[in-house]
Amino acid sequence: MIGRWTSGHAARRGLTLIELVLALGLFALLSLMVVQLLDSTMRVWGRAEAQRYAIGTHSTLSSQILDELDQLAGGERGDLLIDWEIFDTDGDLIATRPLPRLRFVRRATAADMNRLGQREIDPNDPTTARLRGGELPLLEVVYCVLPSEIEGLLETGELAEGMPGAPGDVVLWRGERLLDDASRPSAFDDDFFLNGFPPTGSAEPVHDGILWVELLCAGRGTRLDRGWRVGTTPQDAARAWDAHGGGRLDTALHPFNAPYMGQGTYRGEPLFPRRVRLVLEVEGPSDAKRRAALAEPLTPEAIEMVVRDPQLLPPAGTLVLMGEEWVKISQPGTRTRIERAQRGTAPRPHRVGTPLQYGRRFEREVRIPLFREDWRS
Questions:
Q1: Which residue ranges does UniProt annotate as crossing the membrane (predicted)?
Q2: Which residue intervals of the chain are DSSP H helices?
Q3: What is the pLDDT of residue 9?
Q4: Cα–Cα distance between 297 and 354 in angstroms, integer?
C-alpha cells in the first residue's frame, strides 16, 4: 500500500512539473512576442516621426525660400547672385567644404513692411493700414549656410554655449534690409562676407541640421527633358548665377562658381534663370542619434572603409558626409566600398569614430516669372 501510494504521488508530481515547464515556456514565448511587437511598433513610430520631421522641415524651408524667389524684382535695381564659399567645419584648420549663398532683391509685401516697422495704422479705420510713402519698396534678402560656430565667433570671437547646431554642423541663416536703407550694409557689397561671414546682426539663424543645400539654375537654353544636368554648355544647368553677367563669381575659389554659359546680357538689365530647383538634405535629431561611424582610420587614397554599426548605413548609391568630405556608398557592409570626393569636396584623412551623416533628399522647383517678361519685351 505504501509503495503504491508513493508511486502514484510521484506520478502526479511529475505531471505537475511538466505542466509548469510548459506554462513557463509559453509565458516566455508570449513575452518575447510582446517585446518584439513593441520593438517593431517603436521602430515604425520612430521612422514615421523622422519622416514627418524631414517633410515638415523641407516644406517650411523650401516654401520660405522659393516663395521669396517668386517675388524677384526686375528692372535696373533687380539683382540675383548665387555663389559658393568654402569653410572649415571639422576644426582641422583647412577649409574644403563648399556652402552656398543666395542674395536677391524682391518686392516687399505688406507683411514685410509690418515686420520691419514700416506700416502705420489709420486710427479711423483699424482694419486697414497704409504704407509710409504710399508704395511698396524693394527688399534685399540674403540666405547663407555657415558653420554652427559662427554665432559665437561673431559675438565674442570664441565659441559660445547654446549656439544653434553642434560642432561640425552647419546652419541656414537669413538676413534682410530695405534696399534704400543706407544705415545697414548691403549684402551685395564686396566686403559684406568678410572671411566668408556676414557682419554681426545682419542675419539670423533659421534652421540647423543642414547637410546639403543646392540651388540649380536653368537658363534660356537649358534642356530639362534630360534632367537637371550641371555642365559647361548652354544646354546644361548651373550651380551659380550672376544676374549682371558673371563678374562677381569667383571661379578660382571653387568650380561650383562657374556661371551659366548661355547667359549673356540683355539691355543692361539683370537676367534671371527661367527655373530654379532647390535641393535640400536635413538631418533630424533622431537621425543624429543613429549614425554609423568609422571603426578604423581612413586615408585619402582608400576606397574601402571599415564601419562600426553597418546596419545603420543607407543603401547603395546614397551620399554620406564624413567630416568635410562627401562620399558615395557603392557597397554597404562592415567593409564598405565608397567613391571619394563627391559634391565638390576633396579626399581627406578621417579618424576613428568619424560619424557618417546622411539625410533625406528633397527637391522642389519654382518658375521665375521675370524671365518670361524679359524675353517678351
A1: 20-38
A2: 2-69, 110-115, 150-156, 285-289, 369-376
A3: 53
A4: 9
